[in-house]
Write a structure and sequence with these properties.
mainly alpha
């Protein structure tokens, strides 16, 4: 088995590179410089794209933070609205409890005042007129 591996290795080394049909290509210098310039341009474009990607990832992170803050603000506003509704209901109940009784009516007191004043004027007129 070992001899077979040695033979295959030897055949692979000897006939691994066949140089009989090797072709040479001549590339003009202008094409080489064009390719080099395009390669440099692509490298710059790639670096700009990576910086843009990092900036966008930072922006996404900030937007996610803003989203959590907005949801927190919304939940506190909802809680505040609920508390204000409860306060309104308590004020309505307070108005019912503190509502003036029938003897505390302002028209009744006005009538008492008019009757008292007219009576005092009439009695004064009776005393002076005698």
């Amino acid at each position: 088995m070992r001899y077979i591996i040695y033979i295959l290795l030897l055949v692979g080394v000897l006939y691994g590179q066949d140089t009989k049909d090797e072709k040479m290509y001549n590339i003009p210098a202008s094409q080489v410089t064009d390719w080099a310039n395009k390669l440099k341009q692509y490298e710059v474009s790639d670096s700009l794209q990576t910086s843009l990607i990092s900036d966008l990832e930072l922006q996404v992170k900030k937007l996610e933070e803003n989203s959590t803050l907005d949801s927190l603000i919304i939940s506190t506003r909802v809680h505040q609205i609920d508390l204000l509704k409860e306060t309104t209901e308590l004020y309505k109940e307070k108005v019912k409890v503190v509502k003036p009784k029938w003897h505390e009516n302002k028209w009744l007191w006005f009538t008492y005042g008019v009757v008292a004043t007219s009576t005092s004027v009439w009695l004064t007129g009776q005393l002076v007129g005698e």
